[in-house]
Amino acid sequence: DLIKYGLIPEFVGRIPVVATLEELDEDDLVKILYEPKNALVKQFQKLFAMDDVDLHFTDGAIRAIAQEATKRKTGARGLRAILEQAMLNVMYELPSREGVKECVISEDVILNKSEPILLYEPQAKAS
Questions:
Q1: Per-residue pLDDT tens over the stretch 48-77
Q2: Buried b (16+ CB within 10 A) or exposed e, 58-97
Q3: Degrees (nearest 5) of the Cα angle 2, 23, 29?
Q4: Is the predicted pLDDT of residue 43 greater than 80, yes or no?
Q5: What is the pTM for the complete model shown?
Q6: Whole-number Å distance between alpha carbons of 50 and 61
Q7: Any residues with CB less than 8 A from the CB of 52 and at least 6 apart, and which?
Q8: β-pairing, 100-105 with 117-120?
Q9: Which residues does 2 contact at the CB level (< 8 Å), separation at least 6?
């Protein structure tokens, strides 16, 4: 295949290992978002935890991220760009908001650039 794509045989002979790969499907991309030790979802959760905010993604949001990466044909490398694009505003605004305890990213946030659901701490009543 490498020769067919234009590489000269002398160069191909110097490549020690040639492996063919198949395109990642949606389920593979979902696993990549969650499973590795430094998975993207975990990275964003730690980032939000620095502001004492719990970050949660709905199953629909995770699927939407994977579907968008598949549609763009960017594979796993495109997952971060999709997440950052969808969450740019909330990451910028969150530190200035008081009392936010939880942020929920839904499918609508990923697909339609909607605002995430922000849950606030209950206010202590003044006596």
A1: 999 999 999 999 999 999 999 999 999 899
A2: beebbbbbbbbbbeeeeebebbbebbeebbeebeeebeee
A3: 145
A4: yes
A5: 0.79
A6: 22
A7: 101
A8: antiparallel
A9: 12, 15, 18
Type of residue found at 34 = Y
Q: How far is C-alpha 101 from the chain's CA centre?
A: 21
Residue 100, beta-bridge partner list: 120
Which residues are paired to 54 by β-bridges? 102
Structure token digits, residue 25: 């499907």
Count of all residues that appear for the chain in the document: 127
Instruction: Enter the DSSP assignment of 57.
Output: E
Domain ranges across the chain: 24-120
CATH for the stretch 24-120: 1.10.8.60
Q: How many CB atoms lie within 10 A of CB 39?
A: 15
99 CB-near residues (< 8 Å, 6+ apart) = 120, 121, 123
pLDDT surpassing 60 at residue 127: no
For tokens 């990275």, the residue is 43
